[in-house]
Amino acid sequence: TYMDGILRAAGAVNALPETAAPYPQLNLESLLALNPDFIIDVSWDNEPRDAVRAEKALAYWKRFPFLRAAKQGRVWIPNPDLIQQPGPQIRDAVRALRAKLPEELP
Fold it and tell me: Which end of the chain is more exposed for a tag (fewer CB within 10 A), N or C?
């Protein structure tokens, strides 16, 4: 998928196993079971694109302190226009993701 390509180009590994569905959607229980090291949350794209939006999203994830990514503050709330829309900005998306990934993560 497009997002998987961005992850690989940034040097990350997708926590979601390959499936037959090209764009699988996870429910919360599935995500909690995966317990990822890092979360890219693009579900807040109906909110205003500002610091308030990011604060709301981060507050949401802090409700799950047993989730590895939330516990370590490894949640990225990118601008959906940067990360979700294929186009020439893909280089910027990869760079932005690389900058957010902790060094010790693959």
Answer: C
Amino acid residing at 23: Y
- Find the length of the chain: 106
| Cβ proximity of 101 and 10 under 8 Å | yes
Condensed to tens digits (0 to 9), the pLDDT of residues 27-61 reads 889 889 999 999 988 875 555 566 777 788 888 99
Q: Cα separation of 32 and 68, whole Å?
A: 9
Q: Are 97 and 12 in contact (CB under 8 A)?
A: yes
- Pair of tokens at residue 21: 């569905």
Look up the pTM and report it. 0.82
Between CA 89 and CA 39 the distance in angstroms is 21
Q: What are the structure tokens assigned to 95, written together?
A: 């760079």
